[in-house]
């Protein structure tokens, strides 16, 4: 008898705070059970930098605040069969999107020029730095997202529920107590 | 003699003059709603309480019950429409739950949970709306207004003050404060106003008491809105 092929799971944090990844790790010893069914591909947990072309599940934390975020998101969509938005920022822009009603130039001016103590400040312009977008966008505005895990962050139990539902071949469902926007 | 109609196959009694939602809540059946409040005249604007009566869509907060009506409410079709309406409310305003004092006690959020809203689906507007912190005891955060008009009705009909109004039309409709300056501080709005108590979302907030109840102990942490609805309160 051959062992069932493990599902490849890739994860990333775009314009997020890594809080959702921390919550993911809060599934604690259930990680061992999970690792009987999955292997991690590109992820901050493995430090692999690019997705394999045959990933089964991609988990995205954070929204889109700069050009690199969009590039990474598209790479995930291209290489993952199922894409999951994890947490408030991926779903609605979250905290980074609280800048959306301000013009980007005003923000850069205030952060690098006009705040106290920034007399000779300059706006960073290194070619290695990704350019910020005018507004922070939820990821479903750019690529098709298959499932959403709301929460800031989603609880470990909510993440566990979604992943185990998917592994069981079911539509993920979060009932009362697991479904939270905060 | 009392009459009956059926709601999702259940026989619901009603007395003359009762609307469908009033009869349903008296019978312990939850119909999702946002602008409806049992203590006020219905406004019929949010359309969350839409049901099908004999196959036709209608708002159950304004439609009077009639003998023999066949009413459908908890169907996949109607709940999908309710979910879409709720998603539109979320993208039109700035509903950033993690920073909102009303989170956990918010009818919009709890209704979205009830309807299984996993994302806002549509593109967010990210409107720019100023906060009014002029009043010594209250804060107005217009970013979260869903135009239910409960504060308008409470202030006008109960408090006799007319502090709030809806201004503009269509997508430009917005909540205003009836003062020359447009500021809440320049009205006779006070702590004991009914209008200070009715906001279903986080627009009208009492100052200096934010986040008083810890996560896990807030109203809708304990039970979903279908079990704690305003319709069954005060009875």
Please give the structural blueprint:
The complex is a heterodimer of chains A (182) and B (235).
Chain A: E1 7-13, H1 19-25, H2 30-35, E2 38-40, E3 55-61, E4 64-66, H3 67-79, E5 80-86, H4 88-92, H5 104-114, E6 132-137, E7 147-149, H6 156-167
Parallel strand pairs in A: 1-2, 1-3, 3-5, 5-7
Antiparallel strand pairs in A: 4-6
Chain B: E1 3-7, E2 10-14, H1 20-26, E3 50-53, E4 56-59, E5 70-72, H2 76-92, H3 107-114, E6 131-132, E7 138-141, H4 150-158, E8 164-167, E9 174-177, E10 204-206, H5 219-222, H6 225-228
Parallel strand pairs in B: 1-5
Antiparallel strand pairs in B: 1-2, 3-4, 3-5, 6-7, 7-10, 8-9
Description:
The complex is a heterodimer of chains A (182) and B (235). Chain A has 182 residues and is α/β, with parallel strands linked by helices. In chain A, 30% of the residues lie in helices and 20% in strands. Chain A is built from 6 helices and 7 strands, in the order βααβββαβααββα. Chain A has helices spanning 19-25, 30-35, 67-79, 88-92, 104-114, 156-167, and strands at 7-13, 38-40, 55-61, 64-66, 80-86, 132-137, 147-149. In chain A, the strands form 2 sheets. Chain A has a 5-stranded parallel beta sheet, with helices on both faces. A two-stranded antiparallel sheet of chain A has the order 4-6. The longest helix of chain A is centred in the middle third of the chain and has 13 residues, at 67-79. Chain A starts with 6 loop residues before the first strand and ends in a 15-residue tail after the last helix. With 235 residues, chain B is of the alpha+beta class. Chain B has a 5-stranded mixed beta sheet with strand order 2-1-5-3-4, covered by helices on one side. In chain B, strands 6-7-10 form a 3-stranded antiparallel beta sheet, with no helix packed on it. In chain B, strands 8-9 form a two-stranded antiparallel ribbon. In chain B, a hairpin with a 2-residue loop joins strand 1 and strand 2. The model of chain B is unreliable at 231-235 (pLDDT under 50). Classes of the chains: A alpha/beta (182), B alpha+beta (235). The interface between A and B is medium-sized, with 30 and 28 residues.
